[in-house]
Design brief:
Elements (H helix, E strand, L loop, with lengths): L10 E4 L9 E5 L3 E2 L5 H17 L8 H10 L11 H11 L3 E10 L2 E10 L5 E10 L2 H16 L15 E9 L4 E4 L2 E6 L2 E7 L1 E9 L2 E9 L4 E7 L4 E9 L4 E4 L2 E5 L2 E6 L1 E8 L6 E7 L6 E6 L3 E11 L7 E5 L2 E4 L3 E6 L1 E9 L7 E7 L3 E6 L4 H6 L2 H8 L3 E4 L14 E2 H4 L10 E4 L9 E6 L3
Parallel strand pairs: 2-4, 3-4, 7-13, 14-20, 21-27, 27-31
Antiparallel strand pairs: 1-2, 4-5, 5-6, 7-10, 8-9, 8-11, 11-12, 14-17, 15-16, 15-18, 18-19, 21-24, 21-28, 22-23, 22-25, 25-26, 28-29, 30-31
Length: 457
Amino acid sequence: MKGLNTVCFAVLILSSGLSAQKAKTLAVLDFQTTGGISQSEASTLANRFRGILVNTKKFDVIERDKMNDLLKQQNFNVSDNCNSAECAVQIGQLLGVEQMIAGDIGKLGSTWTIDLRLLEVETGRIASTKSQDFKGEIDGMLEVMKFIANEFAGIETVAAPVVNNSAGFGDIYIVSTPTAAEIMLDGKKTTWTTPRLLENIPAGKHTIELSSGNLVAKQEIEIKQGGLENLSLTLTAPSIPVKFVSDPLQSVIYIDDVQKGTTPVILQVTVGDHKIRMVKDKFGDYNQSLLIKITDKSLTVNGVLPKITTLNLFALAPNIVAAGEVKVYLDDQLLGPPPIKKQVGEGKHIIRVVAASKYLKEFNKAINVSGETQVEAFLELTEAYLSLKPETKDKIKKGEIFFTPIVAGGQAQPESTTKVAYSKAVPKNSVGTIVALIIVVGAMAAGGLYFLKQAGN
């Protein structure tokens, strides 16, 4: 069929309803048949689609005759196959509209197929596509077109899925614990939350998914024609497979302080924040924070446990100042007063020694522990003290001031640290400046005997 009589058009003005912006004009080409129905039947369905669009109250549809008159004035002849994007855009330009809809409809056996495209006339870009299959009678196909029209109109709706059983529609009433869960139907998001009554859902099998934060629920349900299905779901945290490996192997795994097994192993771990710890005799603990997102499919935790060794720590203060209470911290964990003897993992550690006296500087040093290690922390005089008593510097030069061990636990001090001259621990040119020294004194113990100190500013 050729000429203007073969094509029907409708111009639709898209109304935002909530916006003061100018509405966009839109024209709809007659549906082209892909088989199973005649072109006249496709045109009839296109007319019904226009009527459905009008019922959404989002469009102002110009009469078909007026549209045909406009094209006739342009001397434009539309062929039977004018369904491509190029042809639709050309017609849109002649009509002076901003958008065009073109599409196909067909039927194979009892299955209907409809594909529609929304085009921007100015750019020729496909702004949106809507495709749907339906198995059943024509009444059901009209409902599918209603869903598509609502989506073009921006009305909250659920796209009609393929119906595998008898034609018809039913309803679903969904409640959940907790409430206000977001609803997905057959993998498509909606703006609905529970509790909610979903009406006019095509009969057949459907998948309902609910989500609220890290909690989810999923269930398949079959809707019967004219029926009302009640669905109550409890949301729980989903889990994903997490692979745990370690060096050494056969380390015990704790998740949130609960023992879960030994490496290597794959465990199901719920979405959210978790505290991971791996332990093994003669090795230090491995600790890690693990965040599992709801979008994660799988993760791997690879823990390297440090070897255990002995750390001996002693603190020394100048003989002219009362240190007061002294606290030792290892990696920000309070160990108590010095001296300290502790089993630690090999590797880098942060040692802090803090005296109550305001005239003694805090000792703060990163050390690398390898084998049995002895650390001596010198608590130096502050600049405030040196300024308060200027004669102190002369006494340091004369060797009258020296470091003595701080004894709190009754442990014996190394002979080499019974008394250390201040001038030796703090060289003359470093008094009152920021320095860090490592002084090796006395016989070397297993793994090394280290005298560490951190000078003031």
